[in-house]
Amino acid sequence: MDTVESGGVQARGMRLFHFTHMTFLTALPASLSSALGIAFVLLGTAAVWLIFDASRRTHSTARRERIIRAHRVAGYLFIALFCLMVWLMVLRTGASAEELPIRSTLHIMMALVLVPLLLVKILVARYYKSFTTVLVPLGLMIFTLAFVLVGASAGPTCSALRPLKPYRCRKPRESPKSIDQPPRI
Fold first, then answer.
1. What is the rounded CA–CA span in Å between residue 128 and residue 133?
2. CB 10 within 8 A of CB 19
3. Quick check: is 179 in a domain?
4. Sign, Cα dihedral of 61, 64, 68, 70
5. Residue 170 pLDDT > 80, yes or no?
6. Structural domain contains residue 21
7. So what's the pLDDT on residue 36?
8. What angle in degrees, to the nearest 10, is found between the helix axes of 61-94 and 30-54?
9. pLDDT tens digits along 35-71
């Protein structure tokens, strides 16, 4: 006889599991986190490529404006995905009562460095037009940091998802006993 009581399921007096409305988000699979991270890096790659493509002199003004608009869209999607991932990771780390491992701590610190860089880039692009010369270096720093941030965590996760096949030796032609025996005459 199952009864629902204060966020958990009980069967004959034993609590089987505890859940809240945030259980799905705090138990986000590592493969989904890695997929979001890879999408994050791909958006960053698209934004960098688009702004470099817009800087070529071979484009007409109208085409250059369309490329810059696409760069802005990729940039805002990049920031939205970053905010989503930060929120999901805060939920995940907040659910843990233990101290975080060093790799997770470094991952959080890299994400925290990314926040002011994104903020400064948006402020310069939107409000401080006289400092536009810093936009490309800022964008490259943001992209590099995002690549390292995702690569440091998604790389090991993705390699763990696809285990290596065990190496199988060929059958020996001779039995081990016959190798150590002197030849028969």
1. 11
2. no
3. no
4. positive
5. no
6. no
7. 87
8. 160
9. 888 899 999 999 999 999 888 877 788 888 899 999 9
Q: Alpha-carbon distance 21 to 115, whole Å?
A: 28
pLDDT digit string, tens, across residues 116-129: 999 999 999 999 98
Report the pLDDT averaged over residues 128-156. 87
Residue 169 lies in a domain: no
From CA 177, how far away is CA 185, in angstroms rounded?
17
**Number of Cα atoms under 13 Å in the Cβ half of residue 21:** 0
Q: Does residue 17 fall inside a structural domain?
A: no
CA–centroid distance for 72 within its chain: 21
Angle at 22 between CA 18 and CA 23, to 5 degrees: 45
Which ranges constitute the DSSP H helices of 8-134? 23-26, 30-54, 61-94, 102-126
Instruction: Give the structural domain span for 72.
Output: 30-158
* CA–CA separation, 37 and 39 (whole Å): 5
**Identity (one letter) of the amino acid at 54?**
A
What total number of domains does the chain contain?
1
Q: Is 132 helix (H, G, I), strand (E, B) or coil?
A: helix
For residue 47, what are its two tokens? Answer: 């934004």
Report the amino acid identity of residue 5.
Answer: E
